[in-house]
Amino acid sequence: YPAINKPAAVLHWLNHVNVDAEYIVILDADMIMRGPITPWEFKASRGHPVSTPYDYLIGCDNELAKLHTSHPEACDKVGGVIIMHIDDLRKFAMLWLHKTEEVRADRAHYARNITGDIYESGWISEMYGYSFGAAELKLKHTINSEILIYPGYVPALNVKYRVFHYGLRFSVGNWSFDKADWREVDMVNRCWSKFPDPPDSSTLDQANQENLRRDMLSIECAKTLNQALELHHKKKCPSADSILISKGDENTEERGTSKEIGNTDASIDSITNHVATNNSGELASVQKEELSSVQKEELASVQKDEIPKSLRFWVVFLWAFSGFGFLVVIFLVYSGHSKRRTRMKHPSRRRRSFQSGFMESNGRDRHGRDVDL
C-alpha cells in the first residue's frame, strides 16, 4: 500500500530529526507549491490544525467512523495540505499510522457507499487514518478551501491558491494530462525527457472567463512540471548543446564514410578495367602462379602431416626409454636391498656360533671342575 508512506514518513522524520520549527506543513508528493504557506496567515494554532476540504470522505458521517474512532463527532473531512503545531503532530503521528493500518485491514467496509472510494479497494485508507486519528485527539480543524486547487477545476475569483494538486486528469482542448499515464515511464532518469507541452495560452478562447481561468491554471501546472524536469536534467545530464554537437560529428563521419565508399567503388572499377585489358600471356602466367601456389599448399600440407608422424615416433621412443630406465632403477634398488639383508644376516650367525661355542667350552670347564671336586 504505497500511500502508507505519508504517515510512516512523518513518524520516521519526527523520530530521527531535531525539529526546531513551531509549525509543520505536510503536502502530498503530487503537489506543486505556487506560493508560501504561513501558519498565521491561515490561523493555525495548537489544537487547531488547518487543512483543505475532502468532502468525499463520507465515512466520517456513517458507521465507518463509529467503528474506528471513539469520537466520531470529531471526525473532519479534510486532507491534502496540513498545517499543524509540532506538539500536536508529535502526539498525532503514531495514531495516524495506526488508524491507517486499521482502516486498510477493514476489508468488510471497502464499499463505495461507505468509504466514497470509487475503486472500492481501500486506496484512501490513509486519508481516513488521518481523520480518525485526529478525532481520537479531538483536534478541531480550520478548513480552508483557498489553499489548494486541482488543475481542471474552475478557480474562484481573486483567490491566490498556494498549491496545485495534479491527482486527477485535466485537459485543455485536445491536450490532456494524467499522472497515471506516466506511471511506467522513468521521467526522472531519462535525460531531457518531458511531458507533452500544453497549448499556448494565446490560443485559448477569451469569451468564457471561467474556462479561461481554468485553462490558464492547467497550462501553468503542466509547464511547471516540465520546468522542474528541465532543472533536474541540467544537474544530472549532459547539456543539450553537447548532444547536438555529437550528432553533428556523427553526420560528418557518415559523410566522410560515404566519400570513402565512393572512392573505393571507383578504384574497384579501375581494377576491373585493367584486368579486362590484360593479354593472354599474362593470364597464362597467372594460371602458372596459381598452380605453383596450389603445389606449395599441397607441399605444406604434406609437411604438416610428416611433422606429427615424427613427433609420434619421438614420443613413443621417449616413453619406451623412460620405462626401461624405470625398470633399471627398480632393479638396482632391489639388488642393493638384498645385499644389505645378506650382510646383516651373517653377523648374527657368527654371534650365535660364537655364543654356542662359548657355552660348550664353559660347560666342559664346569664339568671338569665337578670331576675334580
Automatic annotation (TrEMBL):
<keyword id="KW-0328">Glycosyltransferase</keyword>
<dbReference type="InterPro" id="IPR056508">
    <property type="entry name" value="HPAT-like"/>
</dbReference>
<feature type="domain" description="Hydroxyproline O-arabinosyltransferase-like">
    <location>
        <begin position="1"/>
        <end position="203"/>
    </location>
</feature>
<keyword id="KW-0472">Membrane</keyword>
<feature type="region of interest" description="Disordered">
    <location>
        <begin position="246"/>
        <end position="267"/>
    </location>
</feature>
<feature type="compositionally biased region" description="Basic residues">
    <location>
        <begin position="342"/>
        <end position="353"/>
    </location>
</feature>
<feature type="compositionally biased region" description="Basic and acidic residues">
    <location>
        <begin position="362"/>
        <end position="373"/>
    </location>
</feature>
<dbReference type="GO" id="GO:0016020">
    <property type="term" value="C:membrane"/>
</dbReference>
<dbReference type="InterPro" id="IPR044845">
    <property type="entry name" value="HPAT/SRGT1-like"/>
</dbReference>
<feature type="compositionally biased region" description="Basic and acidic residues">
    <location>
        <begin position="247"/>
        <end position="258"/>
    </location>
</feature>
<keyword id="KW-0808">Transferase</keyword>
<dbReference type="GO" id="GO:0016757">
    <property type="term" value="F:glycosyltransferase activity"/>
</dbReference>
<keyword id="KW-0812">Transmembrane</keyword>
<feature type="transmembrane region" description="Helical">
    <location>
        <begin position="313"/>
        <end position="334"/>
    </location>
</feature>
<protein>
    <recommendedName>
        <fullName>Hydroxyproline O-arabinosyltransferase-like domain-containing protein</fullName>
    </recommendedName>
</protein>
<keyword id="KW-1133">Transmembrane helix</keyword>
<feature type="region of interest" description="Disordered">
    <location>
        <begin position="342"/>
        <end position="373"/>
    </location>
</feature>
<dbReference type="Pfam" id="PF23452">
    <property type="entry name" value="HPAT"/>
</dbReference>
